[in-house]
Amino acid sequence: MYYLFGFLVCLAIKEVVPQTVKTTYVCPTGFRSIGRKCYYFGKQQVIWTDSHFYCGLLNSTLVIFRNYREQNMLKGFVTQDNHTTLDISERWIDGIYDWKTQHWKWGANAKPIRDNPFTKRNTGENFRWNCLALSGAFNNRWLARRCTEKKGFICETDTNIIVEFKLYNRQKKKFNITRCTSQKSLNDYEKRRCRRLLGRTENEPSPLILKNHTARSTPKKRNFDGWICSPHMINLGSRCYTFSTRETTWTDAHFECRRNGTKLAIIRNKAQDHNLRMFLNNFIERHDRWIGGIYDWKTTKWRWAMNGQPLTYRGFSSKVMHHRTPQDLAWNSIFMDPKIDNMWNAAKQTEKKRFICQVQAKAVKEFVPRRKRPADATIKIVKNHPNAI
């Protein structure tokens, strides 16, 4: 009888104290939510490289299908009757053909595409300079198309997850001066509130202001002692570099760096450029070397191909760039030219040059073993003397 009564009391308490959890998935402006991904359907007709940059400006990438589920969800969304605003034309996705390894890869991470159910064509066909597109007219199958063709594109990014908790539905009681003047006992928090309400002078600075002022005046200490790189890499400042010994096109250099877990060098400031130039100027062998900059002819700006961001620092020589027009710079990438002390120059991406790969160095802290305190006195034990007591 008592056990049954206790069980009913527990149920009653659970019903009196409700708890709700609400989870929503929010997409950026202009993106459409499909599952737990956000997609942007670009209507502009551009080549594959420009679509890559456009998605980068939207803090996204061209679509990468990680499994059949993602592909089927996007396919179902496009083919629904209530989305007639989406045309059935072909759209670029992130796949590109690496002719050197003869494999299709995702352009953002250079990982091989394991599932490639695009429309089959002649097995002996040359896919060089081909990229992947989704065809709305062919039930959204994958098609291999020349990367220089102009098409729409699809960008993707992750959703922002918003989780809202609402517990007990209790309203917070307002704290006023009547609580301080009452005869009820106060806890430490309430005592501090009362002191602020009753005893603090107007000229007394707020504790928050004091805290912020102290935080600004105290310099932040670096909690590491230096940088370290892998044995096969060279450390210059906070970055690690490898310098190739063979010549390739700019596209092949991009994939070669990505296969090794690095990227074509991105030079962000004058100090980094100076360190790299001084190192290269001491080389016995002097070769042109690709870095990660590429010319976006549509916006007439130089960008870093890895993230699509415009250059904030330019190491070009004024001798080689002042006479070049935007038409001359189409399909150009940046290389370091030893003829002008390894300052920047530009050339067609199809030219073969050596290249520089880069990765962030790892911060390390030197381990110093604790030194033993020297002894204040030394006790030496000798054999007992025969005359000792």
Automatic annotation (TrEMBL):
Q: Does this UniProt record's set of keywords contain Signal? A: yes
Entry coiled-coil feature ranges:
none
| A Pfam cross-reference name | Lectin_C
InterPro entries per record: C-type_lectin-like, C-type_lectin-like/link_sf, C-type_lectin/matrix_domain, CTDL_fold
Per its UniProt record, what CDD domains does this chain match?
CLECT (cd00037)
Q: Which Gene3D superfamilies match?
A: Mannose-Binding Protein A, subunit A
Residue ranges of domain C-type lectin in the record: 34-156, 236-358
Can the keyword Nucleus be found in this entry's annotation?
no
Signal peptide (from-to): 1-18
Return the PROSITE patterns for the record: C_TYPE_LECTIN_2 (PS50041)
Keyword list (alphabetical) reads: Signal
Q: What protein name is recorded for this chain? A: Uncharacterized protein LOC114334835 isoform X2
Species? Diabrotica virgifera virgifera
